[in-house]
Design brief:
alpha+beta; single chain; 10-stranded antiparallel beta sheet; 176 residues
Amino acid sequence: MRIALLLGCCYFLMGAIEKNALVIHHKEIIVKGKTSVGSFECSYDSQVKSDTLIFDYPYPKTHSLDFEIPVDDFGCGNFLLNNDFRKTLKADDYPLCLVSVHQLTRDSQQIFGDIYLQMAGTEMLLEKVVFQLLEGKLQGTLHLSTEQLGLDASSRLGGLVTVEESIDLEINLYLK
């Protein structure tokens, strides 16, 4: 009898957690921007381990989804863009970027989360970032500027290419 009661409680609790949680199996960060000669996109993805995001978790500081990203692991498509991107992010001085998603909440229409961002020596906390639940993934997009991030991306390749001030940081969390 006790075993049946214990199994019933476990089954009930697992159902309650599943309704308020998302299991993430693949994480991706994409940095998008524009230059005087076109646009660029640099990405990082990780499929190392699964993680769980819980909605309305009572202690947000103890539960977050963290990305610790080596700047050298971002790929931009070719070695020139990779080198310029690393130089812009001051990879020699700050070899890691940190993106942390926490305090995930939802209402009837949208999902919100707070994002802590540490990049190139600058720290930011962005509150109530809207995430869209798309087919198979949760996606949040941050519209930032190089000035906000403390970056000097004014020109590259000897001044032939200039980078625009606005940068989009897209966070994709692929669901199981």
